[in-house]
Each structure stands twice: as structure tokens, then as C-alpha cells.
Amino acid sequence: MVGDEEAIGAVLNRLRRAQGQLAGVISMIEQGRDCKDVVTQLAAVSRALDRAGFKIVATGLRECVADGSATDGKREMSVDELEKLFLALA
Length: 90
Prior knowledge:
By secondary structure, this protein is mostly helical.
């Protein structure tokens, strides 16, 4: 993933947190915990993954705008590709 160190670090932190939450959900299911508790934690995992995805797309958009004035005409992703990625998260 291309991006500044801070953005990459934020995404990795979100994904690691989601990974830990998912491990917790798996343990809850194995322990036979209440359905409501399991679904609540699973929703938290889903939100964490969504936020990580949006952060990745936002970083791509920022870089695309910053690189829009590149003289070689090359971009990491086209506007159409970024739109497709964004809509994939919806």
C-alpha cells in the first residue's frame, strides 16, 4: 500500500484491533456465549474493517489529487478505479 507512514500505521492499527476483536468473537462462539453479545462484537469487527477500508480509499484519493499534477501523466489509480473501490465498501 502506498501512502504516508502515519496513514499506513493507522490502517494497520485498525486491522490489528479488528483481528483481536474477531478472535474474541470466535472464542465467544466456542464458549456458547449469548447470541446478542456475539452479534454486538461481530458488528464492532465489521465497523473496524469498514473504517480501515475507508481510510485506505481516502489515502488513495489524497494521493491521486496530490499526484494529479504529475508531468509524466501516471497515477497510482484512476478516478474510476478509486470510485469502484469506494463503492465496493458500500
